[in-house]
Specification:
434 Repressor (Amino-terminal Domain), 2 domains
Length: 100
């Protein structure tokens, strides 16, 4: 399942919101929300942005809600070239933050 779907499902659970309530506040059809959040239908970027907006989520806060197991799941889903980029950025960041 796509990490964004996992994230949205976790947010809904944490906020105590049902799919019906999300449909009401987002204006997205409930059956479409169910299909997307069950992994049976792809989510459009427009739908993602609309859901994130009504849930009060910015791009910067998305990673704050993941636990270690979810980070590992994301890592295992990444293609090798993306893993190399992430590791390179982490190494650069670590080096930059250790400078006097």
């Amino acid at each position: 399942m796509h990490p964004t779907v996992i994230f949205i499902r976790k947010l809904l659970k944490n906020q105590g919101l049902s799919y019906a309530q999300l449909a009401t506040i987002s204006g997205i059809d409930e059956s479409k929300i169910k299909r997307v959040l069950s992994g049976r239908q792809s989510m459009t970027l427009e739908m993602r942005d609309q859901i994130m907006a009504v849930l009060g989520v910015t791009e910067m806060t998305q990673a704050d809600h993941l636990n270690s197991a979810e980070y590992l799941t994301l890592w295992h889903q990444m293609p090798p070239n993306l893993k190399q980029v992430v590791l390179s950025l982490m190494t650069t960041f670590k080096f930059e933050t250790q400078r006097p």
